[in-house]
Every structure is written in structure tokens, then in C-alpha cells.
Amino acid sequence: MHNLLRSLHHEQKTRWPLHLPELVQAYNNTPHASTGFAPHFLLFGQQPRLPVDDMLGFPAPAASGTIDWVRQHCLRLTEAHQKAFDHLQQAVVKRTALTDRRAADHGLNVGDHVYLRNRVLGRNKIQDYWKPDIYRVTCRVAEHQHVYLVAPLAGDAERAVNRKDLLPASETLDNQDEDTPSSATSVPSETDSESDSDDELWITLPRPRPAALAGPAVVAVLPPAPVAQPVPAPRRSQRIACMQGNN
């Protein structure tokens, strides 16, 4: 259903609840890739009557007797369920072969410590990819298969896990060692200081920052202060007539 909602237009995604009925109808009446049958047919044993059937003028199936209809309905359901089961078994074989081909086997041995893939039910967009607990490899199911039996360090409950869901714990430890700087290069150890003469004094100086990595200096630029403009004096008229009245 998420894939169907993802296929909607951007404007339709903002109002996705309005499109749920038509998407559910399309999902229930579309043959599944694994079973080969539509979910509606596996549940009810008959094809639904679609609006396009009325538009194209397809006649409705003729009604028969109740006993005959029930007998035919049971036969259709039994045959559909058996074929769906056979198709599922074939899909499992194909999926297993694809998973084994993608699994990169790095030769896990018995006793190796591994992390288990965190398979969360429901929404898992922000969940951790691997579980924090460490497991140990107890045995390999078969030489030609990428399936191992693992058990937690604090217990004996074994479970079969595919190789693609296992992460060697040594890889994560090596990555942490590479990311963590060595303490011998930053601060001398006590044994080294004792072996040196007593006249030497160790001074730890901060590492200078390269000029290329230094960011540009930030200078605050203030707007110029407003300059008060002089107020002009009232202009006196130079005409003589303006000082004399009409009368």
C-alpha cells in the first residue's frame, strides 16, 4: 500500500486519505507476484464486479442452484489455495537463491562475535541498523548455504540467521581503533618520561590551525550614522508689493 501511495501525484499525496478507496480496490483486484492470484479471489473465490464491466456491457454471471454454487465455490477456493501455495514455494526458492547470491561470505568461523540485523516490526525509518547485543557463531548449517546458527553471549538460545544479517564485531572494533587517535603521539607516557633526564620539562602546546582551514574573519559592518541636515530659514520675498495691502 505504501508503494501505491508513493505512485500518486504530488498534489494527490497531500490528500492521500481521499484516494485510499480506489487504491485498496486496485490492490485487492491485482494478481500478486508471489501467489499469482488477486487477494479478492483468494478470499471470496470469485472475481469482483467492476465498474468497467458495466461500461463495456459484460453480462452478469447466470445464477444457479444453491447447492451447485456452493460445490463449485468450494472447488474454486481449494484449487486457488493449492496453486497459490505452490507459487509461494517457487517464490521462496527464487528469493533464497537471490539472497544467497547477494550474501558476501567472508568466512565466519565458529566462535566469532557478530552483530545481528535489527529487524523492527512496523515503522523503522530512524531505528538502529544493528542490534547492540553481541552474538557468537555456533555453527554453519551447510557449506553451500549462507545460513549460520548464532546465540547471544549471555544465553544459549540459538537462531538461524542469513549471512547478510550478520556483521562481524571485529570490523566495528577496527573502525573504532582507526578513528581514535593514539595516546602515545599526543601525551608521553610515564615510562617514557622516567627514562628521560630529570632536567627535561614537557610542555603541551595546542596544535596551530592551518591558515587554509581557518575561516574568514567576520567583521561587523554598522550602517553609517545619519547626518542632521541644516534647517533652512524662511525665505523673505524681495517684492515691495507683498508688504502693501490692496486697500
From TrEMBL:
Biased composition range(s): Pro residues: 223-233
InterPro entries assigned to the protein according to its UniProt record, in alphabetical order: Retrovirus_Pol_polyprotein, RNaseH_sf
Region annotation (Disordered) ranges: 169-206, 223-247
Residues annotated as transmembrane: none
Residue runs in coiled coils: none
Bias-annotated ranges (Acidic residues): 191-201
MF term (GO), any: nucleic acid binding
The name this protein goes by in its record: Integrase catalytic domain-containing protein
